[in-house]
Amino acid sequence: MVYTMAWNDSANILSGIQNSFFTVWYYPNTVYVDKDLLPKTIYTKDASEFSQTPQIFNYVGNQVTVRRADGSLVYTSISPYPAILHEYATASRWDDALRLCRFVKEQTLWACLAAMAIAKKELTTAAVAYAAIGEIDKVQYINAIKDLPSKESSMAHMMLFSGNVQDAEGILLQAGLIYQAIQVHINLYNWDRALELAVKHKTHVDTVLAHRQKYLEDFSKKETNKRFLQYSEGVVVDWEKIQAKIEMEIAKEREKAATTPAASTVRSSISTRR
After folding, report:
1. Using CA atoms, how far apart are residues 255 and 149, in angstroms rounded to an integer?
2. In terms of C-beta density within 10 A (0-12 exposed, 13-18 middle, 19 or more buried), how is residue 105 classed?
3. pLDDT digits (tens, 9 = 90+) for 233-273
């Protein structure tokens, strides 16, 4: 329960008092970018000094003014660095943002930079920031996104990174990347949706069935899904043919991306930053 809150006068930073704690959300948009990261972007301290039923009067610069129940005002200072980081991120001054985080050496600031960079699709900076807070699995995922063959695939996987599966699927389908959309759901074990897309677009039904079969074998289970049982009757699973089709799909995507000026610009931009 949050009793009172106030936004900073110049940056996207929110302060509030909840239960017995004074809390500052240094980058509230983290909830839309990487929910797991949100707790690492928050500053909290004991709020007992504000007495009962306090109200935040304002939040200007790095100072929050709180009005106590008796009308007296109490001032508390907040770190000035998150606001500076917001300025750098807004202006896309990523090198300055990295220098600031290395100077301050606080995990909270690194976490904010990771979320800000992901929100702006600045993958190189995001990878450095996630590495600084020990999120190695996310660093690996970001590096994998960099190596994807097309702009559409990169955008879709950025959506997946933030948990927006439906948006990711929409981007891939609109770009005609049917296999990639199907594979997204296979990777997430959304078997029904994967099969639905394969049947609808009349492609890679055997790919879905093969991965489903392997999944069940790994967990020593038998197929009980009626739709999968139905389509399994008329489809022969041949891993060599499936792999050949997948390689062909990826090759076509690379070829298409290479002839698209916008995609070439994006890839050369990423290469320059590396």
Report:
1. 9
2. exposed
3. 878 889 999 999 999 999 988 888 888 654 444 444 444 44
